[in-house]
Write a sequence for this structure.
């Protein structure tokens, strides 16, 4: 029997490396690890039926129909005259295939785009289109198509790994700088406060990851082709993520209170209000997008998301309001 690490490598090599998250995981490698642990092999639309067959051969399981329709290679295209330079698509791209800076026009590097679609939802002005990839359209036969898919997979894996290393390096540098500033501001006896700041940073990092996962699940729930069972499964997953987020928010609030710094506590509450307002704006944009598309299921899901965002904003504003006497 194939050893687990070797099996994971083989599965990962079979996946298309679009890093799209349609499988419910944060990239192809985590999905490969999940398949090795027994997760279904039919959750990769970019891989199509051929990938399901190859995964069945690797794992010794039966082939299954794809949970979502197969997807041909795509490329994102930014309508640059409508771009406001918010950088949200740059932050969302799992392979760093978008160039731009704050308040400057963004553009997609066509040869490096995997067509993952992750840049579409964050765009506040809905100026990103998904089109058939020109290199895929130019492939004249099956061999040319296989060559393109192999090149896309190799480049997608390399750029995704490089991005993960960059993000980890930046997070570590940010943590180190924050620790240095804290050490300069406090006396040696206040090291417990420094440890608390580090713990708070870790919680916020985890919170950002959970929010990204919840956003992907919410997008998947808007798929009109989902079965009732799939929709219930996604709803359970979303509830679990929301529960974990609520737990982290509670821990962050408790940490702020124990620090006994009213000014810092106020900043934290204002930050919570700003984050809630942004979440409500995104929910309104998704609702408007769904209404433009005429997708009833997506409209209903977006309205639910907007209602949740309104509740969170109301709670954040109540926490910020001064206590009544």
């Amino acid at each position: 029997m194939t050893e687990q690490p070797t099996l994971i490598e083989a599965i990962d090599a079979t996946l298309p490396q679009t890093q799209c998250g349609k499988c419910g995981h944060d990239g192809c490698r985590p999905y490969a690890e999940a398949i090795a642990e027994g997760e279904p092999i039919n959750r990769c639309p970019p891989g199509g039926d051929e990938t399901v067959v190859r995964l069945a051969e690797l794992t010794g399981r039966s082939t299954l129909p794809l949970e979502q329709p197969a997807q041909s290679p795509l490329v994102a295209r930014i309508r640059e005259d409508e771009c406001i330079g918010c950088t949200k698509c740059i932050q969302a791209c799992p392979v760093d295939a978008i160039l731009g800076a704050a308040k400057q026009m963004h553009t997609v590097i066509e040869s490096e785009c995997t067509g993952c679609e992750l840049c579409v939802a964050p765009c506040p002005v809905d100026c990103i289109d998904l089109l058939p990839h020109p290199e895929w359209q130019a492939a004249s036969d099956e061999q040319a198509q296989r060559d393109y898919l192999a090149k896309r997979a190799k480049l997608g894996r390399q750029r995704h790994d490089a991005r993960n290393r960059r993000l980890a390096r930046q997070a570590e540098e940010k943590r180190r700088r924050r620790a240095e500033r804290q050490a300069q501001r406090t006396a040696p006896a206040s090291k417990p406060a420094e440890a608390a700041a580090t713990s708070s940073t870790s919680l916020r990092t985890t919170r950002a990851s959970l929010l990204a996962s919840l956003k992907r699940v919410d997008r998947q729930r808007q798929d009109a082709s989902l079965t009732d069972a799939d929709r219930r499964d996604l709803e359970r997953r979303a509830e679990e993520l929301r529960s974990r987020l609520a737990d982290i928010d509670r821990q962050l609030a408790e940490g702020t209170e124990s620090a006994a710094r009213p000014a810092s506590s106020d900043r934290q509450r204002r930050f919570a209000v700003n984050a809630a307002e942004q979440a409500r704006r995104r929910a309104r944009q998704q609702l408007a997008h769904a209404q433009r598309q005429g997708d009833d299921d997506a409209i209903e899901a977006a309205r639910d998301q907007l209602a949740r965002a309104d509740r969170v904003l109301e709670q954040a504003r109540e926490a910020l309001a001064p206590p009544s006497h």
Remarks:
- The chain has three domains: 4-59, 73-185, 191-320.
- The first strand starts at residue 74 and ends at 78.
- The mean pLDDT is 86.
